[in-house]
Amino acid sequence: RPDAPLGGRIEVVHDRGAQTRALLNEIWEAAASARAGSLSRPSEWWETILGRKEGWMGGGERILAIHRDPSGSPDGYVQYSVKESGRQGIDQMSPRIHELVGVTPAAEVALFHHLTSFPWATEVSWAFAPVDPALGAWLQDFRGLRVGAHYDFLWVRPLDWAAMAQQRRFSAPGDVRLRLDDPVFDDLGGRWDLSVRGQTGTESALVGSMVPGSGAAELSMGVQELSALWLGAGSARQLLHVGRIAGTPAAAAALDRMLHTALPPRCMSRF
What we know:
By secondary structure, the chain is an alpha+beta fold. Helices cover about 25% and strands about 25% of the residues. The protein has a five-stranded mixed β-sheet with strand order 1-2-3-4-5. A hairpin with an 8-residue loop joins β6 and β7 (about 190-195). It is elongated. The chain starts with 8 loop residues before the first strand and ends in a 12-residue tail after the last helix. The mean pLDDT is about 90.
């Protein structure tokens, strides 16, 4: 679309040293902090990704480009390779994205547009893209974006509900009385009270707690269901509708408001 957010500039980076690794890690941490399920990367990970030897994590003859916003701050990067074909010289070029990370949707769209602007580019493929690519909203024809396959790289196994509640960000205050079924750890099952206190719309002011409770529960579910909901995936109301959980619609709606996340969960590192 002509009104797509394409501000800033793209820089192709040839250096693979410590300074570049630190810059990419800065971009990575900023993007990962906004997405539930993302992992931090140690220095050894970056050394492998930017190394001379190609492996399943990265490395080899891949091209690296960094996006800077209009103020000059780095807010995205892409690693890609290019496949060229043609009977007489080049008449087709197919960029393949190995990793594209944008702190903002504008950075993601600008980096993708950079690859589509190559002469003779007929197709751009993106391995392990997010389930909600920002570029989809800015294509002239959304049908041009085709999903070839879905892969799972994200699992969660709660071991300490109290600690998880203390560290999680919540979207709204509320209280829900839960009954959990955990077939492995008896102490993680049973009655729990999830409470969030604070001012709506101010994440830093919302404080959550998850403590053992007593009395009747408003919602009953397995640890699998609450684990997915805890990451912001799915809807308690939808699970209640199809019979995966039991309880009251009001409690399911309250749990959805408390656990809502703007972005779906995603593990951004393949492993």
